[in-house]
Design goal:
- There is one protein chain.
- This protein is of the alpha+beta class and 136 residues long.
- It has one domain: YjbQ-like (Jelly Rolls, Sandwich).
- Helix content is 22%, strand content 36%.
- The strands form two sheets. Strands 1-8-3-5-6 form a five-stranded antiparallel β-sheet, with helices on one face. A three-stranded antiparallel β-sheet has the order 2-7-4, sandwiched between helices.
- The longest helix has 12 residues, at 57-68.
- The termini are close together.
- The mean pLDDT is 93.
- Belongs to the UPF0047 family.
């Protein structure tokens, strides 16, 4: 297994941050041509998703998350900025981990697919992402 932790700046606003390049760079540096890239976010308020970016889908995802998880005072978890409790529910909807096939030393993503970090928590502007390549 080959593993590395990368730092991703997400800023102080909700974001869908494309990390496909970072994942591809990591895979290219491995000795394994085929396997599974495991992407894990070790945070209680962020997740990872495979989604199309740049055509509005990333904004649509954030819009839907705002509707599903409003940043208001309904949440029992109340530390941090107003509505922060919703950020702790996010990983139950946008999982904190995923696996992507690696074939011939490249990510086997579809044409419009990107690996993205989803972060609705503006209280933490920097996130860590653990990349692990499992292969034979």
């Amino acid at each position: 297994m080959y593993s590395e932790e990368i730092e991703v700046r997400t800023g102080d606003r909700e974001t869908v941050r494309d990390i496909t390049r970072e994942c591809a760079r990591f895979v290219a540096g491995a000795d394994t041509a085929d396997g599974l890239l495991h992407v894990f976010v070790p945070h209680a308020t962020a997740g990872v998703a495979i989604i199309e970016t740049g055509a509005g889908s990333d904004g649509d995802l954030l819009t839907q998350l705002r509707e599903l998880l409003p940043a208001d005072d309904r949440w029992s978890h109340r530390h941090g900025s107003p509505g922060h409790g919703r950020d702790h529910v996010l990983p139950a909807i946008v999982a904190p981990s995923m696996s992507v096939p690696v074939l011939g030393g490249q990510l086997a993503l579809g044409t419009w697919q990107s690996v993205c970090l989803v972060d609705t928590n503006g209280d933490n502007p920097t996130r860590m992402v653990r990349l692990s390549l499992l292969g034979g």
